[in-house]
Write a structure and sequence with these properties.
Elements lengths: L7 E4 L2 E4 L4 H11 L6 H12 L11 H12 L22 H12 L11 H9 L5 H13 L6 H9 L1 H4 L7 H13 L2
Antiparallel strand pairs: 1-2
Protein name: Bacteriophage Gp15 protein
InterPro entries: Phage_A500_Gp15
Pfam families: Phage_Gp15
Length: 187
């Protein structure tokens, strides 16, 4: 239905209440960025966070519950219809401050101060982000990912703000330990 903000999902013939506040949904997205968790653990965490009554979901309905949760997180887009790029340009955790600054500008208020903002509303604000720091950083990341030459002012901005512009790779504890060990050999 057009204009409807879903607050329930039908799973196994039952209408189940879901957590729709953007904070809960961003937490799920953060779980999927956790390199330490298996995909099964990530799906289970998503179900625990998304569904108020996770225990009502039967084992045979778990796959449907996962698919419906992903549909919700995709703001109603079916996975096969999604044409989103697989190249990551932002990280909700790393870019939190510049994302919220841009979202707040669109929303005309500090959304973190709101008791509740539906995830789809939050994403609508996010999609409408215009010119500013966030869009500048995303443009530079996009060009660098595509191996395109930066304009002179973009290169200067990148050089002066490398820590903001470079998307940090996330490593498992084991991988980070190896990196730290190798780095310790050169100090």
């Amino acid at each position: 239905m057009i204009g409807r903000l879903h607050k329930t999902l039908e799973v196994g013939g039952m209408e189940l209440d879901i957590r729709t506040d953007y904070r809960d949904c961003l937490l799920i997205l953060q779980v999927f960025d956790d390199a330490e968790m298996s995909i099964e653990e990530k799906y289970e965490a998503m179900l625990e966070i998304m569904y108020y009554d996770r225990e009502l979901i039967k084992d045979e309905d778990a796959q449907e519950a996962v698919e419906k949760a992903i549909w919700f997180l995709n703001c109603g887009d079916r996975l096969e219809d999604s044409k989103k790029s697989l190249i990551r340009l932002y990280d909700w955790e790393q870019d939190e401050q510049i994302i919220f600054s841009a979202v707040n500008k669109v929303a005309g208020k500090e959304v973190r101060e709101c008791d509740y903002v539906h995830f789809w509303t939050f994403i609508s604000y996010f999609y409408e982000i215009g010119e500013g720091l966030f869009s500048t950083v995303m443009n530079i990341r996009s060009k660098k990912n595509k191996k395109k030459k930066l304009e002179k002012h973009e290169q200067e901005f990148f050089n002066e703000n490398r820590s903001i512009c470079e998307l940090q790779k996330k490593y498992t504890v084991e991988q980070q330990g190896e990196i730290d060990f190798i780095n310790s050999l050169y100090t």
